[in-house]
Specification:
Distance between the termini: 116 Å
Number of domains: 4
Mean pLDDT: 81
Organism: Georgenia wutianyii
Oligomer: single chain
Structural class: alpha/beta
Strand order of the largest sheet: 16-15-14-17-18-20-19
Keywords: Membrane, Transmembrane, Transmembrane helix
Radius of gyration: 37 Å
CATH topology of the largest domain: Rossmann fold
Number of helices: 11
Pfam family, one: DUF58
Shape: elongated
Protein name: DUF58 domain-containing protein
Low-confidence stretches: 207-230
Largest sheet: 7 strands, mixed
InterPro entries: DUF58
């Protein structure tokens, strides 16, 4: 056989293979819809549904072979039941589903409402269905009646807000299934939405919170040649600003004398809270500590004070009060070596110009730990500690350089700081 003949046969075989591949791809594309429908139907069948179908087919086969009419009737009834259950799940979900939250941010104990609206987008009526909505770890479900074309149905329900938390709500699922639970097919609509349940906070006056009242700042021990707080006079040296020459004293002394100032600083509040689980007697103490941190931070934000807040595990940053409370809502117990002493070391390294430091902790923190924390804080900073002790009466005492305010609940915070200010 000549070479051209072999080449022609090879080309013909290759063309046949290409044609078979194209036909196969075309068949796959044409059957994509039915195959997806079958897959969805198979996923909709529950374990009980498969059991009913298997027993029904087995009874039919056994009844036919053994001549038992009773088995044939039982098998036919079971298979008919399976087919009837299938009819409940067939068809599209022609819905437009909307989930609305009355407010994305609430405070513990406030009323939070959610609404679900389901509209039939088809021109024909649809069968009844079931609507399920995950709310945190729980699930809300309600019956969706049959809807005419273009008709809608709305359900409104309350969301519990008894604890500080971030509650994921949704996505909404419309579910079709038979009354016996043999088949169940659901469709999810939209994305989950987060509901922030912010911690409780209390308003604090500047004096009650111990904030320093100053318009330009507070004087420090550092001396500078230009500021607002006068310190002393000294002899003029080349390079000094002549605007600060004190001419009257210069005339008496017979030489130029210039003013010297104490450097002033803006009030800078630093609040640190321990997240270490071993620093608290119970969960309620931790919740009061988070609320205390939030109350102090919000007061500083309202008065536009310089503010730094941190925990034993991270520094908390935010650009607004709402976002800051969002951050506090996610705070949880931590573990590890971090505590009030490690926070104090971090503050002394990162916030050297702090004017007031407040350490927030629970009942299991000892006086020695507070004394050690106060010893490493910046020297010029006024040191406070708020210790939450469940059931304790409001009290103020001093441990080393730290003024310790003991409170039993959040409502005592304002009165406790006033008491501390007048010691």
């Amino acid at each position: 056989m000549t070479e051209p003949a072999i080449t022609t046969r090879a080309r013909s075989a290759l063309s046949d293979r290409i044609g078979e591949t194209s036909a196969l791809r075309s068949l796959v594309e044409r059957t994509r819809g039915p195959r997806l429908g079958v897959e969805r139907a198979l996923r909709a069948v529950s374990v009980a549904g498969w059991a009913v179908l298997a027993v029904g087919l087995l009874a039919l086969v056994a009844g036919r072979r053994l001549g038992w009419v009773e088995l044939v009737v039982l098998g036919a009834a079971l298979v008919t039941t399976f087919v009837g259950a299938l009819a409940f799940t067939l068809g599209r979900h022609p819905y437009d589903v909307t989930l609305r939250l009355s407010d994305r941010r609430v405070v513990v104990g406030d009323r939070a409402m959610a609404g679900v609206t389901v509209r039939n987008t088809a021109h024909h009526p649809v069968l009844p269905a079931r609507v399920e909505l995950p709310v945190g770890v729980a699930q809300v479900a309600f019956h969706l009646p049959g809807l005419a074309g273009g008709e809608d149905h709305e359900e409104i329900f309350a969301i519990p807000t008894s604890r500080r938390s971030v509650i994921p709500v949704g996505p909404v699922r419309t579910v079709r299934g038979d009354p016996l639970g043999l088949m169940r097919r659901g469709v999810a609509w939209g994305e989950p939405q987060d509901l922030y349940v912010h911690p409780l906070t209390v308003p604090l006056s500047s004096s009650a919170a111990g904030f320093i009242h100053d318009l330009e700042g507070r004087p420090t021990r550092e001396v500078t040649s230009a500021d607002l707080s006068f310190h002393a006079l000294r002899e003029y040296v080349p390079g000094d600003d002549r605007r600060y020459v004190h001419w009257r004293t210069s005339a008496r002394a017979g030489k130029l004398m210039v003013r010297q100032f104490e450097e002033t600083r803006r009030s800078h509040l630093v609040v640190g809270m321990s997240r270490n689980e071993r620093d608290y007697g119970d969960d309620e103490e931790f919740e009061v500590a988070v609320s205390t941190l939030g109350s102090l931070a919000l007061q500083a934000m309202r008065e536009e004070k310089d503010l730094t807040t941190l925990t034993s595990h991270e520094t908390l940053r935010s650009v607004s009060a709402g976002q800051y409370l969002d951050v506090l809502t996610r705070l949880e117990h931590g573990d590890g070596p971090g505590g009030v002493l490690s926070m104090a070391h971090k503050i002394s390294r990162e916030v050297e110009r702090a004017s007031m430091v407040v350490l927030v902790c629970g009942s299991t923190v000892t006086a020695d730990q507070l004394r050690a924390a106060g010893a490493v804080l910046p020297i010029d900073a006024r040191a406070f500690a708020v210790q939450v002790v469940a059931g304790a009466e409001t009290a103020v005492h001093t441990v080393g350089v730290v003024t310790v305010l003991t409170i039993g609940e959040l409502s005592e915070l304002r009165r406790g700081f006033r008491k501390a200010e007048h010691r």
